[in-house]
Amino acid sequence: MSQSSRKKLLLMGRSGSGKSSMRSIIFSNYSAFDTRRLGATIDVEHSHLRFLGNMTLNLWDCGGQDVFMDNYFTSQKDHIFKMVQVLIHVFDVESKSINKDMETFVKSLTNLRKYSPDAKVFVLLHKMDLVQIDKRDELFSIMMEKLQKISNPYSFKLVGFPTSIWDESLYKAWSQIVCSLIPNMNLFNSNLLKFNEVLEAEEIILFEKTTFLVISSTSTMQQQQQQQQQPEATLDPKRFEKISNIIKTYKQSISKLRTGFTNLIIRGSNGTHFYVDVLTNNMFIMIILKDTDANTNYVSNHEESMILENIRAARKDFEKIENSR
Amino acid sequence: MEATVMQDPRDRSATILLMGLRRGGKSSICKVVFHNMQPLDTLYLESTSKPTTEQFSSLIDLSVMELPGQLNYFEPTYDSERLFSSVGALVYVIDSQDEYLNALTNLSMIIEYAYSVNPRINIEVLIHKIDGLSEDYRLDAQRDIMQRTGDELLDLGLEGVQVSFYLTSIFDHSIYEAFSRIVQKLIPELPSLENMLDNLVQHSAIEKVFLFDVNSKIYVATDSSPVDIQTYEVCGEFIDITIDLNDLYVDESAKDLTRTTKPLKSVSHLSNGSLLYLGQMIRGLALVALVRYEEDKLDGSLAIIDYNVNQFKKSLMKMWDGARLNR
Asked: How far apart are alpha carbons B59 and B61 in whole angstroms?
């Protein structure tokens, strides 16, 4: 059990492409501004991160200067590339020497093919904020096409994300990366759908506790089930990342009072109710409810405690799933 | 001051004059504060302007008077005399990162003049740009500046003048805090608001309560317990978080006018046994409170707070209605 729950993640890319900044923002509560203080990473920096309780992420942040890079591909290659679950390769969109970037990417793919062929490969096109807004999509698709082409011989399926530390795209990329590592996702999902049936909520979102990355949500599952339908037009498609961002800001803000928070209830302006509460030791749940009945100020007071009671009841089930791993 | 307002309705008793040597940071303060001021302006235009004398076209007018670095050039003409007499507060900005002896002589001269024209003027000194100083040095600088100003005023025979000092920086909340206090001094009707808040605090186990203007980070009133800057920051940020989350789920298509928007309300339990409470009041005001509760009495005390806050809101509305009738 413990063996399978250790995940090795390689974070690679040329020097200055923003690898350590990413790591610090997602896992160490840095703000985007704070990352300026980070210096160059020397060789490989290991960090062990507990995620969802019994899952340990071993994040190998590999310094990207040429000296180190050459080392990785020659003397250290079996040490670095063995038992890798995920390779995250970061490309700087402003990089002058794209060919060299590609070269290192191909080199790491070759080694990965040899030592851990089952690894998942993610590419992040980083520092997207430096590109004009109307050109971002085009640049992203061109780069992805190119990368897919050069990685075809190695039979890896690439998943790519445009990212920037200055907006919420970083959270989106990382929550997808991390979710690909969670073993019993389906159990979580089916239970979440059941819970949603009970509550008749607008949507329910699950977050990891320390990083506040989105693990799962009901609306995306429903979308997958009815694929052909047009995506819902009304809600902000980036809302999950924004919520992650907002709540992390909140956590940082109340850390000034030297405390954390256990729940947050908001009664919104157009009849929407928000409940953010602890679900298990490692997860937060967020429930969004729409008021069907207008002018019910009195009733909703009772509703509030009922929803909280419901969450309390659901807690046991989710804890069971979590511990079954 | 109020008497002059009666005579000339265009006179505004709550005008703030921002002064200081060049490059002291006045215009930046202006930008930051002006930006925050607008919602507050509308508040006092229409809502709780209970005394009828208090009718401004805007609450705060910041006019930046650029002063030359050399004192000798400064010879107030008739115009500045009128300016000083119509002003409620004089805010003097001292750049704490620069040599400030010049600024201090300049300050005492301005005080002497302003006081002779308008003895009721509030004199506020911002020891500005403290973000560049280390913690220890800040207090030293403040003590030094206070000492020297006091000496200068004594030499001029003006020991009765009240001068308040603030350590400020636009990069944290200190400038908002300072301006909150300056603004509060200018509105003599605020004690009634403060009394109401004190009442609220006494009867609902609240530790600290602020009446915030939602769009700015300035608090219009608070209860009489001392303000802890961290509590203030957290409360201000709590408003942002509530609004941001709420906005994500307000769909554009459903924004028709038939549905009345309900007042925002949010409650957050913290793990150290306290609670952040936000209730939307009238006209873009929000009440944010930090509550400490006992574990077993939670449900009851929350209901009491809800009820009391509602009462507070009702009395606010009454004040506002009364102000409209009186006009």
From this structure: 7
Q: Do B234 and A247 touch (CB under 8 A)?
A: no
| Options 3.40.50.2300, 3.40.50.150, 3.30.450.40, 3.40.50.300; CATH of A5-180 | 3.40.50.300
Distance from CA of B70 to the nearest CA of A (A): 39
Q: What is the CATH number of domain B14-185?
A: 3.40.50.300
| Residues present in chain B in total | 327
Q: In chain A, where are the structural domains located?
A: 5-180, 185-323
Partner residue opposite B272 with nearest CB, options A233, A259, A272? A259
Pair B51, B189: CB distance under 8 Å: yes
Residues of B in contact with A247 (CB under 8 A): 241
Nearest of B46, B63, B64 to residue B55 by alpha carbon: B46
Q: pLDDT-based confidence at B77, cuts 50/70/90?
A: low
Q: Could you say which of A242, A261, A266 has the minimum Cβ distance to residue B269?
A: A261
CATH architecture of A185-323: 2-Layer Sandwich (3.30)
Nearest Cα to Cα of residue A142 among A93, A109, A194, A176: A93
Determine whether the interchain pair A301/B303 forms a contact, defined as Cβ–Cβ distance below 8 Å.
yes
Residue A170: predicted pLDDT: 86
The predicted pLDDT at position B5 comes to: 34
> Structural domain boundaries of chain B?
14-185, 189-252+260-309
Across the interface, of A234, A246, A260, the residue whose CB is closest to B241 is A246
A262 to chain B: which residues are within 8 Å by CB? 269-271
Task: State the nearest Cα–Cα gap between A178 and chain B, in angstroms.
Answer: 24
A230 and chain B: CB distance < 8 Å anywhere?
A: no
Say which of B253, B264, B276 has its CB closest to residue A267. B264
CB atoms B270 and A253 under 8 Å: no
Contact state of A261 with B264 under an 8 Å Cβ cutoff: no
Write down the pLDDT at residue B76.
54
- Topology annotation, domain B189-252+260-309: Beta-Lactamase (3.30.450)
User: pLDDT confidence of A301, banded at 50, 70, 90?
Assistant: low
**Per-residue pLDDT tens for B90-141?**
888 888 887 888 888 888 888 888 888 888 888 889 888 887 778 888 888 8
Predicted TM-score of the model (pTM): 0.72
pLDDT digits (tens, 9 = 90+) for B288-302: 988 887 666 666 677
Q: Give the separation between CA A22 and CA A31, rounded to whole angstroms.
A: 10
Interface of B with A in 121-180 (CB under 8 A): none
For A48-80, letters b (16+ CB in 10 Å) and e give: ebebbbebbbbbbbbbbeeebbebbeeeebeeb
Residues of A within 8 A of B267 (CB-CB) are 264-265
B326 sits in which H/E element: helix B298-326
Q: Report the C-alpha gap between A10 and A27 in whole angstroms.
A: 15
Chain A: closest CA distance from residue B244 (Å) = 7
Residue whose entry in the numeric block shows the structure tokens 């009765």: B160
pLDDT of B67 strictly over 60: no
Band (B326; pLDDT cuts 50, 70, 90): low
